[in-house]
Amino acid sequence: MNILAIESSCDETSAAVITNGKICSNVVATQLIHTQYGGVVPELASRAHQQHILPVVDKALNDAKVTKKDLDAIAFTKGPGLLGALLVGTSFAKSMALGLNIPLIAVNHMQAHVMAHFIDEPKPSFPFLCLTVSGGHTQIVKITAPLQMEIIGETKDDAVGEAFDKTAKLLDLPYPGGPLIDKYAATGNPHAFPFPLPEMPGLDFSFSGIKTSFMYFLQKRVRENPDFIQQNLPDICASIQFTLIDILLKKLKKAAKETGIAEIAVAGGVSANSGLRKSLQELGEKMNWKVFVPAFEYCTDNAAMIAVAAHYKFLENDFSDQTVSPMARMDF
Ligand code: KG4
Ligand code: ZN
């Protein structure tokens, strides 16, 4: 059984082929055009998807040594994401499925981030918790079976990836700033500049207050010393990263305690953060958790995760018809 999967929710155009549950190709074209604007420009993202989608799909089929007539279904990201960007992948998938007369499978992007844990071994067993952290979302998800998921905690304002990226912007780092904060933090002291943690009840998160306190802190220090940022970049990045990770892991610890679940996974773009990966492993050892961290290539947006989610949907005969349309906001 061969499924072609397409991801186009934000600024990565990606296509993957999964054969009998095994990923055979995963091609990702990252849109570099947004760097000069300091963030993703939706209109430019849609245009870039239009340019990339055909070569990316062709390469994914070639890499997997699969032809169009070998395909049994076409999967695509239905949402959440940028509507214009999603429309490109959705229209392409619908046309291809119509032309080949094969089923269509609509996939939720956030569920797919979690399903990235079913690409390689070791796979988590059920139930497990997944901290899903990306540019647009911050969630604690309880998973009881493939694609059976419930959000038990989430951000009430900004996503943690957004907090990384917007703080990086204040530091004059180019978009996306998350990986650069990670890079500079590696040689800095995480305790150089302590920040107060937000108070948020239950398992929910809030990142807008901490983002503002980073901003006030930087404005004050730069007023006192205009070279403050250049002179202290590693320590600033390490302290900011430490604070953001601390917020995430405190809630994850609480979720594990409340649910009694000790299989803990992390997913989404921010799970590529080396500080988060290391701190989660350390916390896992201390708490006796079994920790699952995805391979780097499956942290940020990719079609392999869409393909693996589609594989499970195919097994359930969970198909969409030609009336399906993308959704910028989408629950599980
Ligand atoms: O999952 P993703 O590729 O796209 C969305 O669905 O949003 O996540 C992108 C986010 C961006 O905010 C980016 O800065 C962040 O993931 N990110 C990182 C790292 N790599 C990617 N944040 C911190 N450290 C990293 N190493
Ligand atoms: Zn994503």
TrEMBL record:
GO molecular function: iron ion binding; tRNA N(6)-L-threonylcarbamoyladenine synthase activity
Localisation: Cytoplasm
Gene Ontology terms: biological process: tRNA threonylcarbamoyladenosine modification
Annotated GO CC locations: cytoplasm
UniProt domain Gcp-like: residue ranges: 22-307
Cofactor entry: Fe(2+)
Sites where the protein binds substrate: T132, V133, S134, G135, G136, D165, G178, D182, N273
Enzyme Commission (EC) number: 2.3.1.234
Pfam hit, one: TsaD
Primary subcellular site in the record, as a coarse category: cytoplasm
Top-rank lineage group of the source organism: Bacteria
Cofactor comment: Binds 1 Fe(2+) ion per subunit.
Assigned keywords, A-Z: Acyltransferase, Cytoplasm, Iron, Metal-binding, Transferase, tRNA processing
Keyword Transferase: yes
EC category: transferase
Catalytic activity: L-threonylcarbamoyladenylate + adenosine(37) in tRNA = N(6)-L-threonylcarbamoyladenosine(37) in tRNA + AMP + H(+)
Function per UniProt: Required for the formation of a threonylcarbamoyl group on adenosine at position 37 (t(6)A37) in tRNAs that read codons beginning with adenine. Is involved in the transfer of the threonylcarbamoyl moiety of threonylcarbamoyl-AMP (TC-AMP) to the N6 group of A37, together with TsaE and TsaB. TsaD likely plays a direct catalytic role in this reaction.
Family designation: Belongs to the KAE1 / TsaD family.
UniProt protein name: tRNA N6-adenosine threonylcarbamoyltransferase
Gene it is expressed from: tsaD
